[in-house]
Amino acid sequence: MAIKILRLPKVKSRVDLSRSSIYSFIKQGKFPEPISLGDRAVGWLESEIDDWLAEKVKQSRNGQEVG
After folding, report:
1. Which residues contact 25 (CB under 8 A, 6 or more apart)?
2. Does residue 35 sit in helix, strand or coil?
3. Per the domain annotation, does 66 fall within a domain?
4. What is the spatial distance between Cα 40 and Cα 66, in angstroms, rounded to a whole number?
């Protein structure tokens, strides 16, 4: 399985959240942490973003709080 890295613009588009919301959720432990790609570059594992989205759908369908 190939590992795919998503940069912030694609993550924002994929999860439909703003940059500040994403980083706020990371700080709260509610969103996958990025991995370092270099001195000033980070990215997210596509598989972790997919898992996070699947969990949000599951929570939504079960009537649990999403966030």
Report:
1. 17, 31, 67
2. strand
3. no
4. 31
Tokens representing 11 are 């993550």
Residue 29 structural domain = 5-61
- In a domain? residue 21: yes
- The burial class, CB within 10 Å (0-12 / 13-18 / 19+), for 14 is middle
What is the distance of C-alpha 66 from the center of its chain? 14
Q: DSSP class of residue 4?
A: -
pLDDT band at 65 (very low <50, low <70, confident <90, very high): low
pLDDT tens per residue across span 14-59: 999 999 999 999 999 999 999 999 999 999 999 999 999 999 999 9
- Does a structural domain hold residue 43? yes
Q: Give the total number of structural domains in the chain.
A: 1
Q: Is the pLDDT of residue 62 over 90?
A: no
